[in-house]
Amino acid sequence: MENVKVPYQGLEGLASLMARLRSPEGCPWDRKQTYSSLRRYIVEEAFELVEAIEAEDREGICEESGDLLLQVVFLAQLAREEESFTLEDVLEGIIEKLVVRHPHVFGDVIAETPEEVSRNWEIIKSRKRLEGAKDDSALAGVPRSLPALYRALRLQERAAKVGFDWEPGDEAVVLAKIQEEARELEEAVREGTRDQALLELGDLLFAVVNLARRLDLDPEDALQRSCGKFSRRFRRIEDSLKDEGRKMQDCPLAELDALWDQVKSQEGPGEAGTPRSS
């Protein structure tokens, strides 16, 4: 394969390649795909790109960007076949959107800070969303398919923009809300009401996301760091026991707790749970 001459170049070449794969003389697998079947690949490629970014893997970022771009071109080819839109329509749409949403660059609006740009962006988005929209809620347009932490964050941001938020700087009231939700969850667990425990757990997570938003912290990043930290420490305990010819399931919990504390104390400041260290 290394010496195969590729007759397709650039974005137009990729579009032509996809059209060939979808043709009767093309690939059976590609011809079988639909909008619905591509959903899982779109999500997977997006997460693989994020993983490459977190690893600061420039080669990986390049490759995964291409994989994600392929999904967009694939969707555009499906649309072209049914004559609903084309790749050119996709490009024209995003170019127009970028120009319209950057009036401080292409117009006479003044925005000198990222915060001002973000505020103007949301105002323009809101106006566009309300044009002929059946749903005029401030929460309209937040996808249900977002990961739950990000969806909670986006909903809270939208609500805050119309004044539905605690006073700026008053994080004590948010911490109190977290404690309240934790007590309600504890009560539901104690009473053995599974459905209520599920609801209270959701409320507690939602409150924690609210605190993250007000502290300008990314809750998904925070949880990923904790996952990485847990995985790293757990594997070190496994490796330590393996060197002794033992398994975790054969050790008493007290010993495992002691090993956990030992591994925790051995970690340096550079192992605080960043994505790269996981």
From TrEMBL:
<dbReference type="GO" id="GO:0046081">
    <property type="term" value="P:dUTP catabolic process"/>
</dbReference>
<feature type="domain" description="NTP pyrophosphohydrolase MazG-like">
    <location>
        <begin position="174"/>
        <end position="233"/>
    </location>
</feature>
<dbReference type="GO" id="GO:0046047">
    <property type="term" value="P:TTP catabolic process"/>
</dbReference>
<dbReference type="GO" id="GO:0046076">
    <property type="term" value="P:dTTP catabolic process"/>
</dbReference>
<dbReference type="GO" id="GO:0046052">
    <property type="term" value="P:UTP catabolic process"/>
</dbReference>
<feature type="domain" description="NTP pyrophosphohydrolase MazG-like">
    <location>
        <begin position="33"/>
        <end position="106"/>
    </location>
</feature>
<dbReference type="GO" id="GO:0046061">
    <property type="term" value="P:dATP catabolic process"/>
</dbReference>
<protein>
    <submittedName>
        <fullName>MazG family protein</fullName>
    </submittedName>
</protein>
<dbReference type="InterPro" id="IPR011551">
    <property type="entry name" value="NTP_PyrPHydrolase_MazG"/>
</dbReference>
<dbReference type="GO" id="GO:0006950">
    <property type="term" value="P:response to stress"/>
</dbReference>
<dbReference type="GO" id="GO:0006203">
    <property type="term" value="P:dGTP catabolic process"/>
</dbReference>
<dbReference type="InterPro" id="IPR004518">
    <property type="entry name" value="MazG-like_dom"/>
</dbReference>
<dbReference type="Pfam" id="PF03819">
    <property type="entry name" value="MazG"/>
</dbReference>
<dbReference type="InterPro" id="IPR048015">
    <property type="entry name" value="NTP-PPase_MazG-like_N"/>
</dbReference>
<dbReference type="InterPro" id="IPR048011">
    <property type="entry name" value="NTP-PPase_MazG-like_C"/>
</dbReference>
<dbReference type="GO" id="GO:0047429">
    <property type="term" value="F:nucleoside triphosphate diphosphatase activity"/>
</dbReference>
